[in-house]
Amino acid sequence: MLRRIRGWIDTHPRLNLAYRIGVGTIGGILAAGGLLLVPLPGPGWLIVFLGLAVLGTEFHWARRTSAWLKRQLERFWAWWRARRALRQARRAAGQAQ
């Protein structure tokens, strides 16, 4: 049903432009708001990804950015887990002595 509605919107140039502007505005506000919330406790990254998902429905660059950001975030968390494991191993070795 949504694809049919989107197809109908595509056939009306002014409505299509308004739709894309609306999607861009809402997605941009969500992504920017999420970035502001990242340093605070709460769902900052979730809101950023939600904004990029909204933008990604209309803009290819947003889909690419979202995929890149997900890869970078996964790399960071892998580094963070390895760092914590190394610290715990050093502490355990220090306590054993």
UniProtKB/TrEMBL annotation:
It comes from Microbacterium allomyrinae. It holds the Pfam family PGPGW. The lineage of its organism: Bacteria, Bacillati, Actinomycetota, Actinomycetes, Micrococcales. The chain crosses the membrane at residues 21-38, 44-62. The keyword DNA-binding does not apply. Keywords: Membrane, Transmembrane, Transmembrane helix. This is TIGR02611 family protein. InterPro entries: CHP02611 (IPR013434), Uncharacterised_PGPGW_TM (IPR019099).
